[in-house]
Design goal:
4-stranded antiparallel sheet, 42% helix, 358 residues, 7-stranded mixed sheet, binds pyridoxal-5'-phosphate, alpha/beta
């Protein structure tokens, strides 16, 4: 039996989107593919509220995270982490020989604008990475306040991981001054995994051109240049099938309306938070809660594994806690094309299984 996915990626994908991927292929050096990519870019620019270049990579989101920190750090990167995915960015820097410092907070807390100010004011850094929405803890960082600090340091390239929030939460790239904004297809965009997406500013591009040893596959300069020189094509063969699905889904998202989509995510988040507070506790600092997933503190000491086993029999799946938070927390994703009614149905089943009152 298929289990409807309430996990923070891959998410539940509607059949009509999956069907797009069964279409016959086209060459990756044709007018048709250029048009496909142009349509995708135009809609992604709307989604990210940006005029910056939009780039795709046939990898998961991590590909562009690694590409960004490696290609765009000339001096040293300041990596701000509020959980597993922030730390991953630091590991990428270290393993590529990119100088970097890691700034962490206690799990469940957010990165504060003060921390960012303190680090950048040293003048040591020329690139900063922020996780917008931390998928392990369910924290959504105060990106506007952080952006206001970063704006005071024009030499700093501002990179943001919006993998689990883009298309579920409003991210105004140009207003925030984000130089590289990264996401993946398999989260709030509601598509299968297999493409990374990013926006890249001219400033980030100019910086990258001064950096040696950018690698090849994730060389952000090479990708940026090829899109311009070859009318929206890529250095190597992209995942054309998933691009069909992405083009289709972006049209659907525009039809739903961006504001409506973001509002739907907030509605679902509020419902799950209300339930979590009634029967458990919320793990993250309540001032910085994610709109796309909720990490619930397992205050009742239930077996999350057993709960998921029972949910599976009913055709649903949620996520256990991430890493060390396994069994201590569990995560309910409320993102992509899932509706409030579907979330209510899931919660109804959890209530029944755990004998909780409505
Ligand atoms: C899922 C996730 C990633 C990793 O993305 P992949 O597409 O799996 O490479 C990075 N950051 C955050 C916040 C995520 O949720």
């Amino acid at each position: 039996m298929h289990k409807k996915l309430f996990i923070p990626g891959p998410v539940e994908v509607r059949q009509e989107i999956l069907d797009q991927m069964a279409k016959p292929l086209i060459g990756h050096r044709t007018k048709e593919i250029s048009e496909l990519q142009r349509n995708i870019s135009n809609n992604l620019k709307k989604l990210f509220y940006t005029e910056n270049q939009v780039m795709l990579s046939t990898s998961s989101g991590s590909g562009f995270m690694e590409g960004a920190i490696r290609s765009c750090t000339a001096k040293k990167a300041a990596v701000f982490s509020v959980g597993a995915f922030g730390k991953r960015w630091y590991k990428m820097a270290v393993s590529n020989g990119v100088p970097a410092d890691l700034f962490e907070v206690e799990m469940g807390q957010a990165t504060s604008p003060q921390m960012v100010e303190e680090a950048l004011s040293t003048g040591e850094y020329d690139l900063i990475t922020i996780t917008h929405n931390e998928t392990s803890t369910g924290v959504m960082n105060p990106i506007k306040e952080i952006a206001d600090v970063v704006k005071k340091y024009p030499e700093v390239v501002f990179c943001v991981d919006t993998v689990s929030s883009a298309a579920g939460s409003k991210i105004e790239v140009d207003q925030l001054g984000i130089d590289i904004c990264i996401t993946s297809t398999q989260k709030a965009l509601g598509l299968p995994p297999g493409l990374a997406i990013c926006t890249m500013s001219n400033k980030a591009y100019e910086r990258a051109k001064t950096v040696k040893n950018r690698g090849l596959y994730f060389d952000m300069v090479e990708i940026y240049d090829t899109i311009n020189k070859k009318d929206h094509q890529y250095p190597s063969t992209p995942n054309v099938s998933l691009m069909y699905a992405l083009e289709y889904q972006l049209d659907q998202i525009m039809e739903e309306g961006l504001e409506n989509r973001f509002a739907r995510h907030i509605e679902m988040a509020q419902y799950v938070r209300g339930w979590a507070k009634k029967h458990f506790e919320i793990f993250a600092d309540e001032k910085y809660l994610s709109n796309t997933l909720t990490t619930v503190k397992n205050t009742r000491g239930i077996s999350v594994k057993d709960l998921n086993g029972e949910l599976a029999k009913r055709g649903f799946m949620i996520s256990n806690g991430y890493g060390d938070l396994k069994e201590k927390t569990f995560r309910i994703a409320h993102m992509a094309d899932i509706t409030l009614d579907e979330v209510k149905e899931l919660i109804g089943h959890i209530n029944e299984i755990l004998n909780l009152e409505e």
